[in-house]
Amino acid sequence: MTNIRSFKGITPKIANNVYIDQSSVIGGDVVLGPDVSIWPLVAARGDVNIIRIGARTNIQDGTVLHVTRKGEHNPDGFPLIIGEDVTVGHKCMLHGCTLGNRILVGMGAIIMDGVVVQDDVFIGAGSLVPPNKTLESGYLYVGNPVKQARPLKENEIAFLKQSALNYVTLKNDYLEQ
User: Fold this and answer.
1) pLDDT tens, 62-88?
2) What is the set of domains in the chain, with CATH numbers?
3) For 58-88, b where at least 16 C-beta lie within 10 A, e where not — what string?
């Protein structure tokens, strides 16, 4: 059995220069953009809706990516859309949410259905983002439930892109082995 799995005739689409650790499972309607890295023990299950992950995004160890099915009360369901240059820390849960570009999701964070995270956001480790919340661009969010803590500093905004680039370099090292 492979770690890239079709579901109902739909096979994940994987762009160039993507690293997927052999212990991770990617299944169904999942699209990975260029230079994405999927680290050990990630589960990405696009079985009842779609998962899209943008260029240079990294999904770290033990993270679960899932979606919400379409239904009578929610005709579109909740797909999982992750933008470019996003760093998702270890053991996160992203479920039916939309993340913009240049975001850092701290270790152990949970982001629930219908959440929209705008560009250039830090989400602190262990934070819980409840359903249907919008996190505005340019802020640090922390807590359970998450609250806007403060505006990001210029060097923190610059770090968001750099974090993603650091993982592109690391995944290239893994691909060259």
Assistant:
1) 999 999 999 999 999 999 999 999 999
2) 4-175 (2.160.10.10)
3) bbbbbbbbbbbeeeeeeeeebbbbbbbbbbb
